């Protein structure tokens, strides 16, 4: 136990979890994924149960295209706490991963995640856009069209997402009230 006490003392003197998180965020913004990953590894060692660390790691995996690991990190974030500072993006991106996987069970999960994101911030065009996709895939025309209207009203900037919505609208034959 003496070694453990020494270990804890050293940790107190060293950089904090917050320090590594801020550093990781900075690297993420610069798209320097490997440096961000190093910082997050340090942060996880200091505070394994910190939901913000897992949220950042989720973003890192999400942005570098590793969706299955991003999903694990986001799910872990949510299981650790409900007031993670990144929770809105966690729900948004988790919802989009569930949608990409397109399994029926996952679509219900996607809707839960997106509804959570929406409750936290209902002025986010991307959340409305993903909700429109969920509703179209569930055959719920009215909700799909309402969600789509909000996404457009809030000036959805994500061109890729907009194209995907238009493709699904053509496929299902509804979802765009302006036709």
Automatic annotation (TrEMBL):
<dbReference type="InterPro" id="IPR011990">
    <property type="entry name" value="TPR-like_helical_dom_sf"/>
</dbReference>
<protein>
    <submittedName>
        <fullName>Cilia and flagella associated protein 70</fullName>
    </submittedName>
</protein>
<dbReference type="GO" id="GO:0060271">
    <property type="term" value="P:cilium assembly"/>
</dbReference>
<keyword id="KW-0677">Repeat</keyword>
<dbReference type="GO" id="GO:0070062">
    <property type="term" value="C:extracellular exosome"/>
</dbReference>
<dbReference type="GO" id="GO:0031514">
    <property type="term" value="C:motile cilium"/>
</dbReference>
<dbReference type="GO" id="GO:0003341">
    <property type="term" value="P:cilium movement"/>
</dbReference>
<dbReference type="InterPro" id="IPR052628">
    <property type="entry name" value="CFAP70"/>
</dbReference>
<dbReference type="Pfam" id="PF13181">
    <property type="entry name" value="TPR_8"/>
</dbReference>
<keyword id="KW-0802">TPR repeat</keyword>
<dbReference type="InterPro" id="IPR019734">
    <property type="entry name" value="TPR_rpt"/>
</dbReference>
């Amino acid at each position: 136990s003496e070694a453990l006490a020494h270990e804890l003392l050293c940790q107190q003197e060293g950089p904090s979890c917050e320090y590594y998180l801020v550093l990781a965020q900075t690297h993420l913004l610069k798209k320097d994924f490997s440096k961000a990953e190093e910082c997050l590894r340090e942060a996880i060692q200091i505070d394994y149960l910190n939901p913000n660390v897992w949220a950042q790691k989720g973003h890192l995996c999400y942005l570098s295209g590793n969706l299955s690991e991003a999903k694990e990190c986001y799910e872990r974030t949510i299981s650790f706490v409900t007031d993670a500072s990144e929770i809105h993006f966690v729900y948004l991106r988790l919802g989009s991963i569930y949608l990409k996987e397109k399994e029926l069970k996952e679509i219900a999960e996607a809707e839960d995640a997106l509804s959570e994101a929406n409750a936290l911030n209902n002025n986010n065009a991307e959340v409305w856009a993903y909700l429109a996709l969920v509703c179209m895939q569930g055959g719920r025309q009215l909700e799909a069209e309402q969600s789509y209207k909000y996404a457009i009203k809030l000036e959805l900037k994500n061109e890729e997402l907009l194209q995907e919505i238009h493709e699904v609208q053509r496929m299902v034959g509804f979802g765009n009230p302006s036709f």
